[in-house]
Design brief:
The protein is of the alpha/beta class and about 180 residues long. It has 6 helices and 5 strands. Strand 2 and strand 3 form a beta hairpin.
Length: about 180
């Protein structure tokens, strides 16, 4: 009888946790929607997200202008995963690139950084690049096992200014740049 009560309580608790996790709203999305509502009420100018295809072409053009050759590309709804190789003669190496187009709350969290680190280590790549027009939350990440470059909106805009100055007009008016 004791085992029935103990395991019954564990089972009920597990089902309750799964139901809460499944049907509760994403906190970051709720915060973003509330902030958007407040900004609209104040009359603030809101910038739209860059369209997915435009972001994809921007990232591919930037990688090409930085001297990379795209070996493989896999795209999903919110991000693009790229394996590329450096075309510099003495620095030939493989790079893993995660270009994130959309994130909950328009902030890239640590789980995306850790996922990139795992991909770099499993693919035995030289370096990993995380490219996004949004801020990157680096809190709590003191040391990483892989060599990663985190490129947020401000740094991405700087790279575009330096390597793709003709594309600056295309990114004007979009969120994060």
């Amino acid at each position: 009888m004791i085992f029935f009560v103990m395991f019954g309580g564990l089972f009920f608790g597990g089902v309750l946790i799964l139901l809460i996790a499944r049907f509760s709203p994403n906190a970051a999305s709720v915060r973003l929607a509330e902030q958007d509502r407040l900004d609209r009420a104040e009359g603030a100018e809101l910038y739209p997200r860059i369209p997915y295809e435009k972001f994809r072409h921007l990232v591919l053009d930037l990688l090409e202008s930085l001297g990379f050759h795209v070996a493989m590309e896999h795209a999903s709804r919110d991000e693009i995963d790229i394996i590329c190789k450096s075309t510099e003669p003495l620095r030939q190496a493989r790079f893993i690139v995660h270009a994130i187009h959309a994130a909950p709350g328009d902030v890239i969290d640590q789980s995306r950084i850790l996922r990139l680190q795992d991909a770099v280590m499993s693919e035995n790549a030289s370096r990993g690049l995380l490219i996004t027009p949004y801020p990157i939350d680096r809190r709590g990440l003191t040391t990483l096992e892989a060599d990663l470059e985190l490129i947020d909106g401000a740094k991405l805009r700087g790279l575009i200014e330096q390597y793709l100055p003709k594309k600056l007009d295309e990114i004007e008016g979009y969120r994060g740049f």
